[in-house]
Amino acid sequence: MDVATRFGSNVHKARKRLGISQEELAVGASLHRTEIGLVERGERGVRLETAIKLAGALGVSLSELIDGIAWAPGYSERGHFNAAMAGDADDSEG
How far, rounded to the nearest angstrom, does the alpha carbon of residue 65 sit from its chain's CA centroid? Predict the structure, then answer.
C-alpha cells in the first residue's frame, strides 16, 4: 500500500468513526468536497498543511492519520537511485 492510499484509508476510518459525511469534513477542513473523496481513495497525496487541516477537522492527531506509514531508505548505485516505503514487501492490505 502506498503513502497516499494508507493516508486516505486512515482519513476514511476517522471520518466514519466520527459519523460525518465527506462534505461535512470538507467544510470543517476548508477544502473542496471532491478533494475529500480523492484523498480517501488514495488518488491525491496531500501537503502537510492539508493533513493538519484534516486532522483538526476530524479531531484526531496528525500521527493517527499517518499511522502505518513509515519510510526506509533505498539503496543507490552510481547513476541509479531506488527507494521503497517500509513494509511494501510485507503489506498484504489493499
Answer: 6
* Residue in this structure with the C-alpha cell 484523498, named with its chain if needed: 39
- In order, the DSSP letters of 20-65 are --HHHHHHHHT--HHHHHHHHTTSS---HHHHHHHHHHHT--HHHH
The answer to whether the beta carbons of residues 48 and 57 sit under 8 Å apart is no
pLDDT of residue 67 exceeding 50: yes
Beta bridge partners of 76: 81
Say if CB 45 and CB 7 are below 8 A apart: yes
pTM: 0.78
Residue 84: phi and psi, rounded to 5, are -140, 145
